[in-house]
Design goal:
Residues 7-200 form the Thymidylate kinase-like domain. It is a single chain. The protein is α/β, with parallel strands linked by helices. Helices cover 53% and strands 13% of the residues. The protein has eight helices and five strands. Helix 2 runs antiparallel to helix 3. The longest helix is centred in the middle third of the chain and has 25 residues, at 65-89. The radius of gyration is 16 Å and the shape is globular.
Length: 214
Amino acid sequence: MGRLVVIEGLDGAGKRTLTDALTAALRDAGASVATTAFPRYGVSVHADLVREALHGDHGDLAESVYGMGLLYALDRRDAADDIRDLLARHDVVLLDRYVASNAAYQAARLREGADSDVVRWVRELEIDRFGLPVPNAHLLLRVAPDVAASRARGRAEADAARTRDAFETDDGLQSRCSAVYDELAAADWLSSWYVIDGADHVDAADLAKRLLAR
């Protein structure tokens, strides 16, 4: 059975770049690797409903913390068997966002912390009720919220298909979400967390060795 490693961080933190670099480093070290990113836009109807709501569709759906949290969770529930299959066939499965994203963003929307009811609800729903695989490790790619926002703006300007949604354009939400992520990491929520400074060069080869050594 392979190891499930989750990369978390704010929008614009550089999660996709780290995923690509770590995938290459793990393969160079002789490990077989599979990757998946959440939400699965264009694949899951639940993810597509999330995207549409965050761009103003479906009435007041985007205003519902628990409604949006449920859609994110249902996207992952539908992918659970695929994740288990990947874990059975690969040494490492890298996920760009997972359950902790739901916990962090919904808590931030309610202006609460990692010890809040909504975080407990996310865990009970996704892990206990839906039976999603529990990660072996989390990598928190930490960058200052203003840096992440600047990167997200630049990404949107460079690619018209990647317009920022209601969460990405809410600087206050991003700042609060960063704080919740720090609390989840400090508590080793669901598994061990490794905090990576996204402002510095990430040594993907060293990181790959650390992950494979555990």
